[in-house]
Structure formats: C-alpha cells, structure tokens
Amino acid sequence: MTDVVVIHTDGGCRPNPGPGGWGAVLRQREHVREMYGGESGQTSNNRMELTAPIMALEALTRSVVVHLYTDSTYVRNGITKWVLGWERNGWLTAAKQPVKNVDLWQRLQVACARHQVEWFWVKGHSGISDNEMADVLATKGMQEAIDASRALTC
Length: 154
Fold this sequence. Notes:
By secondary structure, this protein is an alpha/beta fold.
C-alpha cells in the first residue's frame, strides 16, 4: 500500500458555462503535490470536473495504484459505468445523442490506462481535508481564469 497515490479532485466554473477552474491534491506517503489551472473561455462545470483527474493522472511519472476521489457523480459514473458503452456505440448515448465532452472522456481513458485506478465518490464540502483543498485550488484556478477573461475584454 505504500505505492498508492491518493488523489482528490474538484472543478467548477462561474457562471456555468463560463470561465472555470480545476484543482487536485496528490498524496503518496509524506509527499503532497497540489495542482490547479483554469480556462478563461467558455467552459462548464463538467469539463472542469473531468480536467482535474486528467491533469492529476497525467502528472504521475510512473505507473502506480491510484485511489481517486471526486465529488462529481458525473465523472465517477462516466468513467466506471458509461464510458465503455459510449465507446462501443461510437460515442453516442443510449438515446443516440453525441456524448458531451468526448475529447475529455477519451483523454481520461488514456490517462487511466497507465495506472490501476480505483474511483471513489465523496460528498463535497463534507470536511474531508484533501477534498476541501481541491475545492480551494479549483476556486483559485477559476478566479485566475475569470481575471484573465476580464483582461481580454478590456
């Protein structure tokens, strides 16, 4: 269990759609890495929620066991239940509609394939310190994206 990397992720945007941010806390034994970023253009909460685990997994330099915690049921259900069916159906939903955020789902699949990832859902804002920190980081990324979008319009 010493090689398990525990990751907590979060994302959001204001307004939705609008500028957004994502955050991730990666923890392996005593090592902690905090990551965040944002998009100043039109994005969505779901895109930012997907971007956070992608960026965290892509940052890992070797194949490891990952316990990934998200407060997004969209992300957890998408990657653990829906994505294989979407792929099998040519990236169409059961209602034969194009899957939203297909570019990010495909990128998340590739990122997951490098590791042994176990997914967990946690209730947001429930006092789990690394989940709270991921939220703080996502908010920081979102604020920088909002500031950048305002600078572009001035």
